[in-house]
Specification:
single chain; 218 residues; alpha+beta; 4 helices; 9 strands; globular; disordered N terminus
């Protein structure tokens, strides 16, 4: 897999400076161009018709992992239960990260779609899990309409696992997963042969994971 290509997309919501950037220090140290976009949301009504407001913050880091590229990382998804736990029973929460060509700001919206998928309980949050149509809903017509989750592989200084449990040490274990755009044919390969086969095909084909219009490897 490689990084390259180009694209354009809609700009996200207004910048916000209230986000918790803990765990992203390794990325932030490499650039002076950092913004935080806040996506406000509201839960579905409960049995009494009450809703709860929540938000997802997406950090936009230009020039990382290299010049001409931008990293996008959520810092709000950790509040959402994943229904996933360690063998010892400790709850696991997850943040998401992805990469695109600088200027392709739609990837921020795509990461927010990941958080929404967790909020609605529509995905199983673990490596190898697909998020169908996450790109297609934001940018219809792209070859890579879907996402697959994977351990992050482009950021050697990114904190991938945080076992501290927050300020009081009793919180969930926090992980970060990379959202990788894939085509419909590649999602079928994932379903039939598993994530190892898919990522083997992406590697063998030199797939550019920053280009949502790249040729399919399946």
């Amino acid at each position: 897999m490689s990084a390259g290509g180009n694209g354009t997309g809609p700009v996200g919501p207004a910048p916000d400076d209230r986000a918790d950037l803990t765990g992203l220090e390794g990325l932030l140290a490499a650039t002076k161009s950092v913004r935080v976009l806040r996506y406000p949301h509201e839960t579905e009504p409960d049995e009494e018709g009450q809703t709860t407001e929540w938000h997802c913050d997406v950090v936009v880091v230009d020039g990382v992992p290299a010049a001409g590229f931008t990293t996008y990382a959520t810092v709000g998804a950790r509040v959402l239960p994943t229904n996933v736990s360690t063998p010892e029973g400790r709850e696991i929460r997850t943040e998401f990260v992805t990469v695109g060509r600088t200027g392709h700001r739609a990837m921020a919206d795509v990461l927010d779609a990941c958080a929404l998928a967790v909020a609605t309980g529509s995905i199983h949050v673990q490596p190898g899990a697909p998020i169908p149509n996450a790109v297609g809903l934001i940018e219809p017509g792209r070859r890579c309409e879907h996402l697959v989750l994977a351990p992050p592989f482009l950021w050697p200084d990114l904190q991938v696992v945080d076992e501290t449990g927050g300020p009081d040490g009793t919180g969930p274990l926090l992980t970060r997963l990379q959202a990788v755009p894939i085509t419909t044919a590649e999602m079928k390969l994932l379903a039939t042969d598993g994530s190892d086969a898919l990522f083997g095909a992406l590697d063998a084909g030199g797939a550019d994971v920053t280009d949502p219009d790249r040729p399919s490897v399946a």
